[in-house]
Amino acid sequence: xxxxxxxxxxxxxxxxxxxxxxxxxxxxxxxxxxxxxxxxxxxxxxxxxxxxxxxxxxxxxxxxxxxxxxxxxxxxxxxxxxxxxxxxxxxxxxxxxxxxxxxxxxxxxxxxxxxxxxxxxxxxxxxxxxxxxxxxxxxxxxxxxxxxxxxxxxxxxxxxxx
Length: 162
Fold this sequence. Notes:
This protein has helices at 11-24, 36-43, 94-108, 124-132, and strands spanning 2-5, 50-55, 61-69, 78-85, 113-120, 136-147, 151-161.
């Protein structure tokens, strides 16, 4: 697997799984009816932020990550990231590779920590992955997320010092 800078030419490969994940409404706080053009604008953030894709040896996009400054001003030393893995490639280490890549990006970019603002507590695979990479839950917003099947569940705030 190769992780490389994403380009707008990658969007047609990203959009189908981006749309599937967002429309399901189970793991992200994005509007479930987010359209293709708006989604591309939300995902492709300007430098110094970064968007990458994980691709296989044939160049197939397996997943993507958006890495960005979490806060501005006096909080601009805290990074964040969002990940999406094509469900067809789930369980192959794509999410772990993207997360590890983003941690290293944040560290080498001079950030002092990473914070995930809204990890849905029922997304136990993501929580377990982040914890295995050194993140910890530092707080939970009770009933901060209206899950389509589970109802109101908590949103974890997760943190890792760099």
